[in-house]
Amino acid sequence: MLVRVRSTLQNAWFTTAAGGSVIVAALLAEHALGLVTTGQVLMVAAALIGGARIAIRAVRSLLDRTVGIELLVTVAFIGAIIIGQYWEAAAVTFLFALGGALEAVTLARTRRALGELLDMAPSVAVVLRSGQQVEVPVGAVVVGEAVVVKNGAKVPVDGEVCEGQAALDESSITGESIPVEKGPGAKVFAGTVSLGGLSPSRPSASAPTPPWLG
């Protein structure tokens, strides 16, 4: 998945950079050098550079009987070329390609942040079963079951404190550097660290179930 995201990101920025460069060349040719025809040809080329992939996605969507934004952009830039508005055609495809590149960057960062967040959550939890502390995989923790969080340990699941009190470092989740005191009824989040105290907590029904963390 990571390789695919990088490939998509690189393609998006390459298309944007190539289209933008040709637009700049077209403007220079037409306004600085007085080569109007050359500038128009370059504008059409810029529109095709940015619009080719958009048109391909539009056709694929139509084959799936779906009308999306790609089809609207395709119709817009082809129509602009037909009526001789070459600058508008190039601008539409360039802006759409730029938006796609920025979206790819945001998506890649979001996936990376989610991956780091999941990596911070421990893979095992200590639960109270029949009065005994038992170590089980996080995915085996049941909603409503008491989970023991010892001093220095990470909270394995989202839940709420049912007994005891401790200070939790939630900087990995909220960005707050000051530890937060947690007592009975307080919400706790997987991946946060207990800095003191022994606080049994119960996974809350409203929070994501433990398998989500695996």
Fraction of residues in helices? 40-55%
Beta content: 15-25%
Number of domains: 2
Instruction: Give average pLDDT, whole number.
Output: 79
Which properties best describe this structure?
2 domains, elongated, 5 helices, single chain, 3-stranded antiparallel β-sheet, disordered N terminus, 52% helix, 214 residues, alpha+beta, 6-stranded antiparallel β-sheet, Calcium-transporting ATPase, cytoplasmic transduction domain A
Put the structure in a nutshell.
The protein is of the alpha+beta class. It folds into 2 domains: 2-119; 122-204, Calcium-transporting ATPase, cytoplasmic transduction domain A (Distorted Sandwich), CATH 2.70.150.10. The protein has helices at 2-32, 36-63, 69-82, 86-120, 171-174; strands spanning 124-129, 132-137, 147-149, 159-161, 166-169, 180-182, 187-188, 193-196, 199-203.
